[in-house]
């Protein structure tokens, strides 16, 4: 899914895919980026509450879910 095809999500929605999300607030702050993990829930903003919106900017795996980075270590034989 490209950034232009990315769905806009609201506070309280489950995070559908781990990655970097663009956060757009209701007037009080410039857009910025956060990392969100699949299965967590997007939080409301302390100021604009449920008017905050999220859209996927860059999908990525959470490091502990990547087999090569979190699986067991094997010693090289030979």
**Structure classification:** mainly beta
Q: Please tally the β strands and state the result.
A: 4
Q: Major β-sheet, in short?
A: 4 strands, antiparallel
Rg to the nearest angstrom?
16 Å
Helix content: under 10%
Taken together, the total number of domains comes to 1
Termini Cα gap: 43 Å
* Order of the strands making up the biggest sheet: 1-4-2-3
The residue ranges in which pLDDT falls below 50 over 5 or more consecutive positions are none
- Assembly form of the protein: single chain
What's the helix-strand series?
Answer: EEEEH
Number of helices: 1
Please tell me what the overall shape is.
Answer: elongated
**Strand proportion:** 25-35%
The pLDDT mean sits at 90
Could you explain the architecture of this structure?
- The protein has 78 residues and is mostly beta strands.
- It has one domain (3-63).
- Helices cover 5% and strands 27% of the residues.
- It contains one helix and four strands, in the order ββββα.
- The chain has one helix at residues 67-70, and strands at residues 8-10, 19-24, 32-36, 53-59.
- A four-stranded antiparallel beta sheet has the order 1-4-2-3, with no helix packed on it.
- A hairpin with a 7-residue loop joins strand 2 (19-24) and strand 3.
- The protein is elongated.
- The model has no long low-confidence stretch (mean pLDDT 90).
In short:
The protein is mainly beta. The chain has one helix at residues 67-70; strands at 8-10, 19-24, 32-36, 53-59.
Topology summary:
Blueprint (H helix, E strand, L loop, with lengths): L7 E3 L8 E6 L7 E5 L16 E7 L7 H4 L8
Antiparallel strand pairs: 1-4, 2-3, 2-4
């Amino acid at each position: 899914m490209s950034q232009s095809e990315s769905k806009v999500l609201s506070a309280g929605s489950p995070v559908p895919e781990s990655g970097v999300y663009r956060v757009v607030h209701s007037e009080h702050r410039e857009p910025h980026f956060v990392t969100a993990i699949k299965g967590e829930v997007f939080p409301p903003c302390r100021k604009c509450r449920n008017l905050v919106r999220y859209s996927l900017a860059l999908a990525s795996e959470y490091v502990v879910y990547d087999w090569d980075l979190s699986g067991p270590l094997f010693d090289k034989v030979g």
